[in-house]
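Why show two proteins at once? Because comparison is the fastest way to build intuition. When a single record is shown, students tend to memorize it. When two are placed side by side, the eye starts asking what differs. So, the first record is below.
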Amino acid sequence: MGYRSDVVALVYAIHEPFVGQNSVLTIDKEKRYPLLKTLMSTTFKEIADMWGSHFKWHDIDGVLVFKANDAKWYESDQDILAFENFLKEVERCGFEFEFVRVGENRDDVERHESSRALGFLQVELKIRIDI
């Protein structure tokens, strides 16, 4: 069966204008969200195909949500490495990201985010009674 994790990642554009050499960085939020959709069907098509059912578009807030529950998330796995590279590339394209992985052990929490991420993902420890 193996060790399992719950993983959530968000990719989004922020309201503040960017200044940079990459043209994506100078496009406002309302135009960057459709650009992200285009990138997911072209530049990042391999990732979209690989993890398709785990991606959901949240059009109201302009966020691409990735959610995988009970996943075997081993850092040496090629699919995991490809996903981590995807996050680096979307940041390079001018988008922000947040990534949280929670493992089976209570102290196994991994968090990565881009430099201007807004902190939408929060991790909570809860007590549950199973009687």
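Second record. Ask yourself what differs from the first in the token line.
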Amino acid sequence: MTQDLFNTPELLPQEVRNIIEKYNKMEASYDVCRNLINELKPHGYTCDYGLEAIPYELTKIKTNQPVENKTLLVDRNAFCDWYFDYEVCKDFFYDQDILQQLKTHGTFNLDLQKILNGMDYIPANTIAEGQDYTFDEWDEIYLSDYENVIFAN
């Protein structure tokens, strides 16, 4: 388990302490937690939060190497294996009303790039080999860190 840097603010850069102090003054909510994380990320830090919307486990983001290329290439097969597991597919079929479209029109079109563009993060194991990328302690890559996210194959 990693050290929770919320417990040792003296180890943090001043700009990170300022961000934390700003959010400590706000009423706890999921939106506040997400905004806190989004503001911490450019400074190389992240945290988690629970059902009570209280941030915890502030940690330095581990990185493979700095992102120099603002294009991230995603392995199409690995992405499909991750995204279209049984439970996700079942929910996706219901959310998109696919069965009704198939019954009514006989077809349903799916644009994988649009799905990828609508995501906030993907797991590191879906990235095409040979790239430098940044990821957090849960091996997730935040797509907002990149200008272009496209399939390599």
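One difference worth noting in the second protein: The two ends are 37 Å apart (CA to CA).
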